[in-house]
Fold:
Amino acid sequence: MEETKGLIIVHTGDGKGKTTAALGLALRAWGDGLKILILQFIKGSWKYGEIEAIRRLNEIDGRIELKRLGKGFQRQTKDKGEHIEAAQEALKEAEKAFESNNYDLIILDEINYAVKFDLISAAAVKALLEKRPAYLHVVLTGRDAREEIVELADLVTEMRLVKHPYQKGIRAQKGIEF
Ligand code: ATP
Ligand code: MG
Structure:
């Protein structure tokens, strides 16, 4: 059999769809028999719908795990230290998962945010990616992906905002936003 070439995939940009596209990949990979881990770097970024869907899929054969990490993070927060600690912890969890050889696909959701707001360093993320097992696919989501991570990646997609219902004052819709 042909050897798997693990890809580094980045979903960035200011348009909606970065996390949902990553979850779409997870769904495809699950259907193909891969083992998947989804890690959350910013608390509250996942919605009930996807948490519930993944929990039920995982009940079938334990091949798709979702771990919620980090603390709620808002730009205006005063106590950044707590968030740095949480994001560092998330990074350690990712390192463990990378070394475990338990997964074929690992999604680091909103990790680009964590780097953008200096909760973790770009160098640490780069180091993590560089020493990953050769077969492992990794997806990094979040706006404003750092240039050095984009450079390292094999597949980079930028979602571009064209329209968003919030601009018209349309409120969040079940199944679309949560
Ligand atoms: P989704 O989880 O829907 O795929 P995303 O991962 O691309 O979105 P994030 O930057 O993680 O987007 O932001 C998450 C939340 O912000 C979502 O509820 C999303 O609808 C909202 N959002 C994303 N892009 C925009 C935008 N351009 N204008 C307003 N709200 C947005
Ligand atoms: Mg997102």
About this structure: DSSP finds six helices and six strands in the chain. Residues 80-100 form the longest helix (21 residues). The two ends are 40 Å apart (CA to CA). The chain has a mean pLDDT of 91.
